From TrEMBL:
Positions in coiled-coil regions: 37-78
Keyword annotations from UniProtKB, A to Z: Coiled coil, Membrane, Transmembrane, Transmembrane helix
Short name of any one Pfam family annotated for the protein: YtrI_sporulation
Boundaries of every Sporulation membrane protein YtrI C-terminal domain copy: 74-155
Membrane spanning stretches: 12-35
InterPro entries linked to this entry: YtrI_C (IPR058620)
Protein name (database record): Sporulation membrane protein YtrI C-terminal domain-containing protein
Length: 159
């Protein structure tokens, strides 16, 4: 009888060990796969943003191809967090995309007709919500030439 109990005890420990090992293995694989998926999502969003920018730029440039005037060819956005602890690349990509969408109508316009103060007023101190968090945008500098370049600082308001 005691031998029977010992055999059941050892087989129970073996089965529990296999189950616990399988659960730990599943958790580790899940963590590794989710990290890879997050990096792929970030890369896909970045590439989609680049494609949209190139398409918009190409359309505007084709409209003004025969003009000999200096026109706006591109819009660039440099985003920096107010505190470096909260950096999130997906949020940066999304904010950059939204800001460029605000100014895509400027592509193809003559540089002399672009009003810098108006550009700053459009996005300065604006609050944007992304994934339930609120971010306040502050324009630090702007450069207007064939490329309109914004240097922007963002601050997390509500997490």
């Amino acid at each position: 009888m005691d031998k029977m109990r010992n055999k059941h005890k050892y087989s129970l420990f073996f089965i529990l060990g296999v189950l616990i090992g399988a659960m730990i293995g599943t958790i580790v694989i899940n963590i590794l796969v989710s990290y890879r998926i997050d990096s792929y999502i970030k890369e896909i969003k970045s590439l989609r943003k680049v494609i949209e920018e190139k398409d918009t730029r190409l359309e505007k440039l084709q409209q003004n191809i025969n003009n000999k005037k200096i026109i706006v060819n591109d819009i660039q956005v440099e985003i920096k967090y107010e505190d470096d602890k909260t950096e999130d690349d997906i949020v940066k990509i999304t904010l950059e995309k939204h800001i460029k969408n605000k100014f895509k109508c400027m592509l193809g316009k003559e540089v002399k007709n672009v009003d810098g103060e108006m550009l700053v007023e459009v996005i300065d101190k604006r609050i944007m919500k992304i994934d339930g968090k609120e971010y306040q945008i502050k324009v630090k500098r702007i450069m207007i030439s064939q490329v309109i370049k914004f240097w922007i600082e963002i601050k997390v308001i509500k997490e």
